[in-house]
Amino acid sequence: MSQERRWLITGVSSGLGRALAEYVLARGDTVIGTLRKPEQAVEFARRAPGRSIALRLDVTDDAAISSRVPEAVDAAGGLDILVNNAGYTLIGAVEETSPAEVWQIMATNFGGPVRLTQVVLPCFRRQGRGHVVNVSSVAGTVGFPWSAMYSASKSAVAAWSDALAAEVSGFGVKVTCLEPGGFRTNFAGSSLRSVERPLPEYADPVTAVKQRYAAAADTMPNDPDRAAAVIAHIVDMAEPPTRVALGEDAHTYLTNALRSRIAEYARHRDISVDTSFAPTAVPSS
After folding, report:
1. Which of 52, 170, 240, 276 could form a disulfide with 48 if both were Cys (CB 3.0 to 4.6 A apart)?
2. Which one from 13, 23, 52, 136 is the annotated catalytic residue?
3. Does 150 qualify as catalytic in the annotation?
């Protein structure tokens, strides 16, 4: 049995965040869970009174993060793990996505994790330990059409996680980036949004994507409850991985995408490799 831990998990009202919160609460840990709605906060606080601490928070609200997160950490008696899980996807072509929609998804899926991490890192550094777990996606590597902004936000999370891991390792702080495949959550429900001003030129493929999401919502291959056990195990490891493909489909997607990328680099190496300055001629004596 691992020692009791104190977690801050964003987005615990449903999906992977909820499954993880329930799993670690069941084993005796303490969870600060962020939620958006009052009724969700009441329900979460009743799950394990004294150990399930509800924190109403919009992860794009910098002032609220700066003030409420430290208060919640104090109420929990400290913090051991931050899980940046809250986020959503946006369906639509790049051309029809407004600047406001671009900035909003980046602020939620990427800016929120960055700001939350900045707020808790001083605590982790002082105690000489801590673990930041960032939920990215296979979309961060694959780059799926018709959800390009979601892919971009998750790619940012993954690259930032790599850099963050290198920066904080000397303080005893661990970083793990999760790259999940398809999970049977509300991904195609409340976590799925569409662009507000669609263009008719993209109507057919975008509609087809929405229909595929709706049809697959209840048939995704991966179980959030089983993923929660995997995540808890990773956090318990003395040397946790920096990146984890979560699910058999995730391993397939990521392996194929990376192999294809490496092969394309190699195919065009002869026309792209020679960009260095020409050697300086050595004058004859």
Report:
1. 52
2. 136
3. yes
Per the annotation, the verdict on 154 as an active-site residue is yes
User: Is 282 a domain residue?
Assistant: no
Query: Residue 82 sits in which domain range?
Result: 6-269
| Total-model pTM | 0.93
Q: pLDDT tens across 68-114, in order?
A: 999 999 999 999 999 999 999 999 999 999 999 999 999 999 999 99
Burial category of 283 from C-beta neighbours within 10 Å (exposed 0-12, middle 13-18, buried 19 and up): exposed
Confidence of residue 189 (pLDDT cuts 50, 70, 90): low
Give domain status of residue 111, yes or no: yes
Catalytic residue chosen out of the listed positions 13, 23, 147, 150: 150
CA distances from 255 to 83, 141, 249, 259 (A): 25, 10, 10, 6
Marked catalytic residue, from 52, 137, 153, 154? 154
- With H, G, I as helix, E, B as strand and everything else as coil, classify residue 6: strand
Tens of pLDDT, residues 5-17: 999 999 999 899 9
CATH of the domain at 264: 3.40.50.720
Active site residue 37: no
Count of domains for the chain: 1
- 232 in a structural domain: yes
Residue pair 131/80 in contact (Cβ under 8 Å)? The answer is yes
| Burial (0-12, 13-18, 19+ Cβ within 10 Å), 280 | exposed
